Amino acid sequence: MSKVDSSISQLRRKINVVDSSIMLAIHQQSARGSQARQELATAMRAVSELTTKVADIKRKAAQSEGMVQEICRDIRKLDNAKKHLTSTITTLRRLAMLVSATDQLETLAEKRSYVDAANLLGAVNELAMHFDNMTSVPRIAELRAKLNGIKAVLRAHALGDFDAMSRLSSSNAEDDAQDVVETAEDAALLARMRGACAVVDALGAQVRAEVVDRLCERELSAYTMA
Predict the structure, then answer these.
(1) What pTM, to 2 d.p., does this model score?
(2) In the 8-state DSSP scheme, what is residue 133?
(3) Which residues contact 215 (CB under 8 A, 6 or more apart)?
């Protein structure tokens, strides 16, 4: 009987050891579960904070992009305004140059200063080309009309001098005397003719053809009359 009691006591001790081990394992597992839950909660908070930061970064990036686009639009507007302003200033400068050159050309035409007029006429024509698409502007239309009038005066003067030169040549050819006396007026006419040729050339192909036709007609008229 004593042996049985001893065995029972040993079994109870073993059971108690096993129970203690089980309880310890349960407590340890519970502690680890609690720690895992804490770690999971910490990780979830970190993910939430990271998500918030990413969203904030995206929002700020969108704001920055909007600001950049707005700045770019402003820069483009300023650039276009600068281009328009530069173009306007250039146009005004050309207009001032054209007005001044036209006034000078008018004076030269009145004086029959053909050489200077021919040189200036080329520059005036080049300046006037910049305003070909502005004929509806009253000031431009007025200036073009004035320029056309000056060209008409130069044409008339040149044609008149060529006619006078042709008459002078015919008169000298018909004169039997070898010692033809050249008047001061004739000398001045001869001096102008080289400049007149330059003016006719500057006035264009139509005026050149007109001069040639008139000279040919005058020269051939003598043979026709004969």
Answers:
(1) 0.60
(2) G
(3) 162, 166
